[in-house]
Each structure stands twice: as C-alpha cells, then as structure tokens.
Write a structure and sequence with these properties.
By secondary structure, this protein is mainly α. The chain has one domain. It is built from 20 helices and 4 strands. Belongs to the nucleobase:cation symporter-2 (NCS2) (TC 2.A.40) family. Azg-like subfamily. One of its GO terms (molecular function) is purine nucleobase transmembrane transporter activity. It is found in: Endomembrane system. It is a multi-pass membrane protein.
Length: about 475
C-alpha cells in the first residue's frame, strides 16, 4: 500500500508518565516516550485506517472460487498473526495484513486469466514467502534494493494500481463491454452504476478531508444505501445478513489447501509471478519501514531502521502463514503512519491492532454481504495512491518513461501484468543498450529479461 496522506509530525504533547512493569520492559515504553494509553489509542487509529481490508480482500479473492466467509476469517487471522509478530519481535508500530495489489494479481491474473487453481496459487505465494524469508535474513536484501532500477519498480507498482482501478470499476458494473469501443461506461439509468458513481465522488472527499477511517466509512455508507437500491434479478444491491454477530468461523475450505505439486509441475510458468510477488513484497515492506520509522523518529543516528531484519522476517513469515490460512501475500501497511501520528511508538500499537482484528472475527456475517459497488470506490483510491511514485520519475527521459508507460498501458489494455512487466523490462534493456549504458544494466535485470523471453516461448506453446 502507498500512504493515504503525507506523514505529519505528531503535535507536541506533555511527556507521558513513566510506565512500569512488564509492558514497559517488553516494549521500552518509557525509553520511547510513550504510554500504554497512547499506544492503545494509536492501535485503534491504525485499525480504523486499514479495516477496509477485511471487506475488500474477501470480495476480491472470492472471485477466484474461494469461500468468501472463510476468506474473512483468513484475512483477520493473517492480520492477527503478522501484527502480533511485528509487535513482539520487531517492537515497531507497524500493522500487518493481506496486501492490496497482490490479491488482485492472485485472483485476476493467476487464477482467472492463467487458469491456475487457487490451491496452486496459494502454494506459489507461500514459496515466495520462503524466498523472502531467506532474502530477509541474508545480505542479499541490500543488493536487491540497490539493483532493481527505480523505473521498473515504479512502473510495476503503477501498473498494478491502474489494474486495481479497472477491475474495481468493472466488478461494480461501472465499466462494461462494448462491441464497438471494447469498453464503455455503464448506463446511468442503472441504480447500481449511480451508487458506484456516488461512491467515486464521496470516497476521495472523505480522504482529502482527513476524515478518520475514511475508506471503511465509505464502504459502510455505500453498503447501507445498497439496502434500498435495486440491483439484478429484482434483489437489492446489498442483501440482508444472516446475523449481525456470530462465533468466529474457521477457514475450513482454505486452511492448508496448498497444492505444492502443481507449483513445481508448472514452475516455468510461475517464475515471472514469483519474481513479481518477491519484488512487490520486498519493496512494499522497505518503503513502509522507511516511511513509518521516519514519521515516528525511530531511525538510528546513522539513518538505519531499528530491528529491520526482524521486521522483514516478520513480513516473510506472515506471507507463509497467510497462504496456509487461505489468503495472498501479507505485508506491513503504510496506514500505520496514522497510528504514529496518534502517538504510537512501539510494538504495543501493533498488538492493539491485532486485538481489533480479533474482535472483527465475530462480525463476519456483515463483511460477506458488502457489495462490489461499496468496495469499488475504496479500491479506486488504493489504485490512485499506488501511482504516486510516478511523481519521482523524470518523464522527459525516454529511457525511464518508455518502460514505465509500456508496463502500465500493456498491463491494463491486455489485462495481464506479466505482459506489461515483460515489455517494460525488455524495453528498459534495449534503451539502456541503445544509449551506450550496457555495462550499467544490473545482472538481475538481464536475468529477468531472459526469464520473460523464456516465459513468452512457453506460453506461446501452451496457448
């Protein structure tokens, strides 16, 4: 995730009273100038900013053929495990949950487009988590961060953001097929389309006005309105839930459903996707760590991130546990900055977030009835925020601009991230060679180019 708002310094406040006892010793509350009350409030703030994932992740991944109610439980449980680990191991105010973007690629690229069963896709994500864990515990982490060109990283992130926007609008019926123009806007005489349009205006207004919990509030408002908006087959857009609360549901259909054999029998096809998930997870975590620790003034005097190895390893481990439960890549959330702005400085903030996700398990009947018209505007905002990296690129330099634009446009127009990544990478190599900078192309990029060429040959034989 990219940040919802630019980090702001927390307002000056009187120093909290010194904490004592087990919590102070465990989290160094006094040393970081915070208190139990402040940490709990920060955790509540962070949860409010990211709670939308409990509704959005199941809504997306259920399109892969997975049970939506089980996905609600898997999402919350993965967030609980990851946030608890981050709090106790890394002692950082970072909340962890299933990643936006990766769930879209999992569902619409890997399962629906490439035809991989979701069990095999879960195995691939878990395998990526293992690779990420090895990377996190070794010195390779610094080399990867240095060698992947900024243009390729930003191009991939922007492409995923654009794909999220397109899929969200298509799922809500706001974008439809058209025999003449291929795609067109849905009819404004359609009540669900009008509901989505209202959400597209409401949601960014709430965000720019810095309304607390803007995305989950938007989803809640649109879901409530959906009870009175007629949809298909004479039913309302939002169906009536079977209950408001219920005992937490164990994700029986998705737990330990990984198909490891399928992954290794289709390894060549999966290789580019493994690279995507590994890079997406690594750089998302790196960016989040830099942003959150900077906003919290937790960096060491030399600028390094405290407990960075533990934080990276937590993300990696959570991305192994997530697929075991039945969800995609799990990562640290940039929305944790909202908790930092509320005063969060330690892992107690993360434990508080985990506690709220535990409470959310009791409300799963509500999350499963949220319609796509309610989640689409939130997804559009997420996609827009993932494109913010484009501002860091000099688009007048064609060596940078062409790979980014090709990655973004080819991904969206072909509805295939691998196509965009392949053309973007190969164009980057070609342009660097053309301007006489062949020696500056990292070996990792050359290797990625070979992978994409091999991938194209294999796919051409299959389809």
């Amino acid at each position: 995730m990219n940040e919802m708002t630019k980090p702001q310094a927390a307002p000056a406040e009187p120093a909290p009273r010194a904490a004592s006892g087990l919590l102070d010793r465990t989290f160094d509350l006094t040393g970081r100038g915070t208190s139990v009350g402040r940490e709990v409030m920060a955790g509540a703030t962070t949860f409010a900013a990211m709670a939308y994932i409990i509704a959005v992740n199941p809504a997306i991944m259920s399109n892969a053929g997975m049970d939506r109610a089980d996905l609600v439980s898997a999402t919350a449980l993965a967030a609980i495990v990851g946030s608890v680990m981050m709090g106790l191991w890394a002692n950082l105010p970072l909340a962890v949950a299933p990643a936006m973007g990766s769930n879209v690629i999992f569902t619409y690229v890997i399962v629906k487009q490439m035809g991989m069963p979701w069990q095999g896709a879960l195995a691939m994500v878990a395998f990526t988590g293992v690779l990420f864990l090895i990377l996190s515990l070794s010195k390779l982490r610094e080399k990867v961060a240095k060698d992947v060109p900024e243009a390729l990283k930003i191009g991939i992130q922007a492409a995923v953001g654009t794909l999220i926007v397109f899929i969200a609008l298509r799922g809500a019926g706001f974008v439809v097929q058209n025999p003449s123009t291929y795609i067109a806007m849905g009819s404004l005489r359609s009540p669900p389309v009008l509901l989505t349009l209202f959400g597209l205006l409401l949601t960014p207004v709430l965000v720019v006005r810095r309304v607390p919990a803007a995305l989950i509030l938007s989803i809640a408002v649109l879901t409530l309105i959906g009870f009175f908006v007629p949809g298909a087959n004479g039913k309302m857009v939002t169906s009536v839930p079977s209950a408001i609360m219920a005992w937490p549901r164990w994700p029986t259909s998705t737990f330990m459903a990984l198909d490891i054999g399928y992954l290794f029998s289709h390894f060549v096809v999966a290789l580019p996707l493994l690279f995507y998930f590994l890079c997406a997870e690594f750089f998302s975590t790196l960016g989040t760590l830099i942003g959150v620790t900077g906003a919290a003034n937790l960096r060491k005097p030399d600028g390094s991130i405290p407990n960075a190895t533990a934080a990276f390893a937590t993300d990696a481990t959570a991305s192994i546990v997530g697929p075991l439960l039945g969800t995609s890549v799990v990562t640290a959330y940039i929305e944790s900055i909202t908790g930092v702005q509320a005063g969060g400085r330690t892992g107690l903030t993360s434990l508080t977030v985990a506690g709220f996700f535990f409470l959310a398990l009791f409300f799963w009947p509500i999350f499963v009835i949220i319609p796509p018209q309610a989640t689409a505007p939130a997804l559009v905002l997420v996609g827009v925020l993932m494109m913010q990296g484009l501002a860091r690129i000099d688009m007048t330099d064609l060596v940078n601009a062409v790979p980014i634009v090709l990655t973004l446009l080819v991904t969206v127009l072909t509805n295939n991230l691998i196509n965009g990544m392949a053309l973007g990478t190969l164009s980057y190599i070609a342009l660097e060679v053309a301007v006489g900078r062949r020696s500056q192309i990292p070996a990792m990029v050359w290797g990625l180019g070979v992978v994409f060429v091999a991938y194209a040959i294999v796919i051409a034989q299959i389809f």
